[in-house]
Specification:
Elements: E1 6-9, H1 15-26, E2 30-35, E3 49-52, H2 58-72, E4 77-80, E5 86-87, H3 95-123, E6 126-131, H4 144-164, E7 169-176, H5 183-186, E8 188-189, H6 198-213, H7 218-230, E9 237-240, H8 242-253, H9 256-266
Parallel strand pairs: 1-2, 1-4, 2-3, 4-6, 5-8, 6-7, 7-9
Helix pairs in contact: 1-7, 2-3, 3-4
This protein binds NADP nicotinamide-adenine-dinucleotide phosphate.
NADP nicotinamide-adenine-dinucleotide phosphate is lined by residues 10-17, 36-37, 53-56, 81-84, 104, 108, 131, 133, 176, 178-179, 181-183, 186, 212, 215.
Length: 272
């Protein structure tokens, strides 16, 4: 009997993680999804196998990966989706708030990869898709720490891909633009509000909320994750959606002045 490939997706309670787990199940993968609150388990299809995970906690990561290996014997595909947003100007953001964002968006991915890689090496292969963002290659005013965490994730993933290729393991970065999920409602706001930033901050945050509300469907990002995980020769970067592809090309080929002006306009910042 052919064994189904085993996928593990972090953060399936909503948004892109939920859409990705649903699509992988649909395509015949044995799929494990993680939740922080297991009391929500009844909201999900019984064929999705749920495991508790908080990516900020060492022990939680270890026992989540062990639980999947105990039940399925292997992990072929890992989708590091769990993430959180932090908004506010960089001057308003405390070191603790910045550190907390990195704990989830950067160190959370590092922990998951370190926990899963030994079993992938042992079986001679695997695929990891890390959910980055267009803010992994562009600036994000008033989301500067979130942006920095995704830039860090890009450098990490690109380096890791070179190190693990010898074991038949490949890493891909998925770079969505604005996507219609709960990320805006779930975002933390920097606690030290400074009057000097109040007007601009409000304009930018309003523009971000509007862009998320009218953004791409999370299912479209899930399709790109599936493409990256199943491609015979996976690429390192997958901008997800029309907007993200356009921005990725702009970043590579447009004069930096043009990109700078366009970005300020998009976020409602004064033309410089
Ligand atoms: N939406 C966008 O516009 C957009 C654009 C580019 C990239 N992204 C990226 O896409 C990914 C998914 O975000 P989303 O838009 O789908 O947002 P979302 O609806 O808020 O989902 C985030 C998921 O991550 C989980 N999570 C958060 N902190 C966690 C932790 N410490 N441990 C384990 N799970 C945790 C959440 O679980 P709980 O329910 O327990 O909080 C939730 O399942 C993130 O990496 C985000 O940066 C989103």
């Amino acid at each position: 009997m052919i064994q189904k490939k085993v996928a593990l997706v972090t953060g399936v309670s909503s948004g892109i993680g939920r859409a990705t787990a649903t699509l992988l199940l649909d395509r015949g993968f044995r799929t494990f999804g993680t939740l922080r609150e297991m009391n929500r388990a009844s909201e999900f299809s019984t064929s999705l196998e749920l495991v508790r995970l908080d990516v900020r906690e060492e022990e939680s990561v270890r026992s989540c990966v062990q639980a999947v290996l105990d039940q399925a014997g292997r992990i072929d595909l890992l989708v590091n989706n769990a993430g959180c947003a932090l908004v506010g100007s960089l001057e308003e953001t405390s070191i603790e708030e910045a550190r907390a964002t990195f704990e989830t968006n950067f160190f959370g991915v590092l922990r998951m990869c370190q926990a899963v890689l030994p079993s992938m090496r042992k079986k001679g292969g695997g695929r990891i898709a890390n959910i980055s963002s267009v803010l992994g290659f562009l600036p994000g005013p008033y989301q500067g720490i979130y942006t920095a965490s995704k830039h860090a994730l890009e450098g990490y993933s690109e380096s890791l891909d070179h190190e693990v290729r010898q074991f038949g393991i490949r890493i891909s970065l998925i770079e969505p633009g604005f996507t219609r999920t709960s990320i805006g409602q779930n975002a933390r706001v920097a606690s030290e509000a400074l009057e000097a930033y109040a007007n601009e901050r409000k304009r930018v945050l309003d523009a971000i909320q509007k862009s998320i509300a009218t953004g791409a469907d999370p299912g479209a990002v899930a399709s790109v994750v599936l493409e990256a995980l199943t491609s015979r020769s996976p690429r390192l970067r997958y901008p997800a959606g029309r907007e993200a592809k356009f921005l990725s090309r702009l970043r590579k080929f447009a004069p930096s002045r043009l990109l700078d002006n366009g970005l300020r306009k998009q976020f409602g910042l004064q033309a410089a």
